[in-house]
Amino acid sequence: MKIGIIVYSQSGHTAAFAREIAGQLGKAGLEYDIELVRPQGIPKPWTGKIQFRKIPDITEYDILLVGAPVWAFNISKVIVSLLYKLDSLKGKKVFPFVTHGLPVKPIAQRALRTLCNHIEACSGDAMEGEAQFYLLSTTNKEKMREAAQRIVQRIRQQITALNMG
Ligand SMILES: Cc1cc2nc3c(=O)[nH]c(=O)nc-3n(C[C@H](O)[C@H](O)[C@H](O)COP(=O)(O)O)c2cc1C
């Protein structure tokens, strides 16, 4: 059972959240790879066509985590563009995670929902994700650890279910 973490992060916050999740996966004895999404240039929320330096190969993963920041009151379009360039997500459990800089939970939840909708549109099985408030390079580390633990707990439940099925 291999787990892939695909994360877009412009200023490092979502990457830090990804590393926290990775640390928790490691503690749980689960194998994972992290891949940072690298677009060409510096995309802005209004950038239409986003090109990537490399498209991650996701074929070997049964479970994926897909993370990105909230931009302009929704999920960053960078990760959405990437999802449609990946191989099909068919048969994969996909857990979204986001970071956001405004303390407005409904916006973060909307970003998670939007990401889930795109995951489903790419034939993936969208799972419950996590959002982490992250302002100007500071965040509540304890809350971030708890969020990472929650997502890893859900992943473990899925692995148990897959092994039993
Ligand atoms: C262009 C841009 C737009 C943003 N728009 C929002 C927003 O609408 N709501 C919000 O909560 N945070 C917003 N933020 C803050 C980011 O979501 C937050 O800083 C996030 O943690 C950045 O993640 P990163 O360091 O992984 O790029 C915005 C940041 C940028 C750069």
Bound molecule types: flavin mononucleotide
Q: CATH first level: which class?
A: Alpha Beta
Tell the overall outline. globular
SSE string, helices as H and strands as E: EHEEEHEHEEH
What name is given to the CATH topology? Rossmann fold
What does this structure look like?
- With 165 residues, the protein is an alpha/beta fold.
- The protein has a single domain (3-164), classed as Rossmann fold, CATH 3.40.50.360.
- It has helices spanning 13-27, 77-85, 105-121, 141-164; strands at 3-7, 32-36, 63-71, 74-75, 93-100, 125-126, 130-133.
- Strands 1, 2, 3, 4, 5, 6 and 7 form a seven-stranded mixed beta sheet that branches.
- Residues 9-15, 45, 69-73, 99-102, 107, 134 line the site of flavin mononucleotide (FMN).
What characteristics describe this protein?
single chain; 165 residues; alpha/beta; Rossmann fold; seven-stranded mixed sheet; 4 helices; 21% strand; globular; binds flavin mononucleotide
Describe the secondary structure blueprint for this structure.
Blueprint: E1 3-7, H1 13-27, E2 32-36, E3 63-71, E4 74-75, H2 77-85, E5 93-100, H3 105-121, E6 125-126, E7 130-133, H4 141-164
Parallel strand pairs: 1-2, 1-3, 3-5, 5-6, 5-7
Antiparallel strand pairs: 3-4
Tell me briefly what this model is.
Helices cover 39% and strands 21% of the residues. The chain is built from four helices and seven strands; from the N terminus they run E-H-E-E-E-H-E-H-E-E-H. Strands 1, 2, 3, 4, 5, 6 and 7 form a seven-stranded mixed sheet that branches.
